[in-house]
Amino acid sequence: MISRFRQFWTKVISPIANLLLRLGVSADAVTLVGTIGVSAGALIFFPRGHLWLGVVVITCFVFSDLIDGYMARTSGTSSKWGSFLDSTLDRLGDGAVFGGLVLYYAGSAGHSRWMAAVTLWALVMGATTSYARAKAESLGLQASGGLAERSDRLVSVLVIAFFSDVLNLPILLKIVLWAIAIASTITVVQRAVSVRKQVLADPTNARLGTPTAPNPAAADPSTANPTAPNPSAPNPTAPNPTSDGSVARSAEHKTPGPDTPPTTS
Q1: 80-106 vs 64-75: helix axis angle to the nearest 10?
Q2: What average pLDDT is seen over the chain?
Q3: Residues in CB range of 137: below 8 A, 6 or more apart
Q4: Catalytic-residue membership of 165
Q5: Structure confidence at residue 114 as a pLDDT band (50, 70, 90)
Q6: How many Cβ atoms are within 10 Å of 85's Cβ, its own excluded?
């Protein structure tokens, strides 16, 4: 859902990204700094109960996910390493946000072990959602979409966490965390069903590899190379050493020399 507004946000962050490029900042550096900022904001302020302040800090860094991508495309430095780094650090940032809320509910500030368990489940299902897509794509299949994608989960929990703290309505955050946990679970099931349908529709996708047919030549060394000479077969062109070491030739194969008169029939 939120990803549909990517074009709008790209226009918003493009001036910042262009400024960073002129200053010589790399896209990888933006990715790393953004993840550190998100993780620090979540793990420092959320467990203490300062939800709104944590959201403000996280928001200042969360758009690095758009900025680094724009910088890589604009500068022509997009690479497999950058994609890998970005996706891996995104998982760390998500884990920090939901992990900070788990610590909030498990501690004295939130004081709700039940909600800590629900938030932890939302964290696990969110990670599984991302893994299901990555694993499907590694197998040549598709497992995108679903009820709750990464951007939907992240934006909804940050917005509601901010207002639940400012308005002193903790029930709002509890509701959205329950919703994310359930929606993420449904998304995992949706992606699993989608992959299953693709496999059933194309039987060639059912196996991980193509079985290798047995090589009959491997069992019979004599047929391994049909063009190779057989050492046990006589070679009519090879010299035949006699018992005394001399070479015997038949008369019909002997080449007439200057001292040998030609034979007549």
Answers
A1: 180
A2: 79
A3: 143
A4: no
A5: very high
A6: 17
Q: Which residues contact 131 (CB under 8 A, 6 or more apart)?
A: none
Could you read off the pLDDT of 74-110 as tens digits, one per residue?
Answer: 888 778 888 899 889 989 999 999 999 999 999 988 8
The residue behind tokens 């946990």 is: 181
Contacts of residue 155, defined as CB under 8 A and 6 or more positions apart, other chains included, come to 2
| Structure token digits, residue 212 | 């290798």
Residue type, 35: T
> Burial level of 227, CB count in 10 A (0-12/13-18/19+)?
exposed
In a 3-state reduction of DSSP, which class is residue 247? Answer: strand
Q: Which helix (DSSP H) or strand (DSSP E) does residue 71 occupy?
A: helix 64-75
254 pLDDT above the threshold of 70: no
Q: Please check whether residue 106 is in contact with residue 123, taking contact to mean a CB–CB distance below 8 angstroms.
A: no
Q: List Cβ<8 Å contacts ≥24 apart for 176-181.
A: 177/101, 177/115, 177/118, 177/119, 177/122, 178/118, 180/122, 180/126, 180/148, 180/153, 180/156, 181/118, 181/119, 181/121, 181/122, 181/125
Catalytic residue among 65, 68, 86, 90: 90
Radius of gyration over alpha carbons of the chain, in Å? Answer: 36
